[in-house]
Amino acid sequence: MFKSLNGVVLPGGGQDLKTSGYAKASQFFFEKSVEAYAKGDIFPILGICLGFEQLTEMVYGKNWLTQCDAENVLLPLKFLPAYNTSRLFKGFTPDLLVALETKPITANFHHKCMTPKNFSLSGLDKFYDALSTSIDKDGLEFISTMEAKKFPFYGLQWHPEKAVYEWTEREHLPHSYEAIRISQTIINFFVNEARRSRHAFVNSTVEMTSLIYNYPLYYAAMKTSKFTQIYSDNETVATKGSRP
């Protein structure tokens, strides 16, 4: 599968960072990407929310996260010096950078945070550049955006995708013109990173059988789900209120 894909997104959710299938799959792609990079093979990874947390755990195999309260809240970013030379923010227009820094525009849904202190004590600051911080409901500062110094790894503790794809009134979500453009800029950046990879499926048949379109798509918002649409082979599971 690694040789077939051009990159991986580690999405949000609720899974154990060591023992879950999510963690094991993430670790596999993380290690394969590091190994491939030494041979000039680019394989980018984008971690969102839980994916961000997983990226912090996989470097040294230890969890340095702390309890926090950033559930269902929109927050601005406080940019750190490294953002000026970052790859991730390079393509952002000045008005979007101003919006990120001055408006509550990033959607947060997490109870674990990486504090700047733990980021430094853990040695993660040797592997990643912290690009921004945010403040949770209790006033705790946490790392909200980071990128690896060497490898094509990017971590967002916030959810850029929700601005475009989630429309439930049960959650605080940004849908302004700026929020949509921020989401699109992140997506376009990561797709361009994936274009640097030369991996490919062995043939079109194998590729088609691997696509998510093989799974039914359910409109879940009319029921109790917090998501607008869900791919699943089980409608009851797809449309229940809990997160997958």
From TrEMBL:
Highest taxon above the source species: Eukaryota
InterPro entries: Class_I_gatase-like, GATASE, Pept_C26_g-glut_hydrolase
Entry keyword annotation includes Hydrolase: yes
EC number: 3.4.19.9
PROSITE patterns: GATASE_TYPE_1, PEPTIDASE_C26_GGH
Entry annotated with the keyword rRNA-binding: no
Reactions listed under catalytic activity: (6S)-5,6,7,8-tetrahydrofolyl-(gamma-L-Glu)(n) + (n-1) H2O = (6S)-5,6,7,8-tetrahydrofolate + (n-1) L-glutamate
Keyword terms: Hydrolase
Positions of the catalytic residues: C49, H159
Domain named Glutamine amidotransferase: residues: 6-163
Name the UniProt record assigns to this protein: folate gamma-glutamyl hydrolase
Organism: Priapulus caudatus
Chain's gene name: LOC106806675
